[in-house]
Amino acid sequence: MSFSRREFLKVSAGTLVAGILPLPALASVLESVDTKRTLGFFNTHTNEKLKVCYFDGDGYRPEAMDRINFILRDYRADEILPIDPLLLDQLFALKTRIQPRTPFHIISGYRTPATNAMLRRTTSGVARSSMHTKGRAIDIRLPGYSTRRLRNLSIALKSGGVGYYPKSNFVHLDTGPVRTW
Fold first, then answer.
1. Are 95 and 153 in contact (CB under 8 A)?
2. Domain 36-180 = CATH 3.30.1380
3. Given a cut of 60, is residue 42 above it in pLDDT?
C-alpha cells in the first residue's frame, strides 16, 4: 500500500492531532483530515461479522452503508432501517482513540417498534420512544476492554446520548441530545 505525499501528510497530521486533542475536538478533526473510515462489527445474536470502509474521501459509501444497515438490522423481525451515519462516526472516533483488536460487538442496533415494545415488557431500561427505532442508537461492547472506560470515552465525545449498563456489560450510544444515564 502506498500513499501520495498529500495523503501521508493528512494521515500524519490527523494522528498527531488525535493524540493531543480531547475527543470532542477529535470528531471535527476526523471530518477534515481522515480520508477513509473503516469499522468492524460482530453481531452477538446472529454471529455475523463485517469489516467495511463506510466513508472515503468522497463521502459515505452507499454499498457499505447497505451492509452496515443489514448487520444492524432488527434480527427478530428481519427488518432493516438506514442507520444514522453520525452514529458510525461516533464509533469511528472511539475506534481511533482505543485502537481495539476486536470488532465492536453489537448487542442491539435497529429495533422495530414491535420489538421495542416487546423488550419494554420483558426488560428494564428500554425507552418507549427509543432511538433504536429510528436507526440512531446502538448498544455495544468491546471484548477485553472495560465498558466503564468505553462509557467514559463515549461521554467525552459530547455527541449524543450515552447509557451505561454494567450488569449487562454494554454501552448505549445514540445521536440524540447529549445526555448520560
1. no
2. yes
3. yes
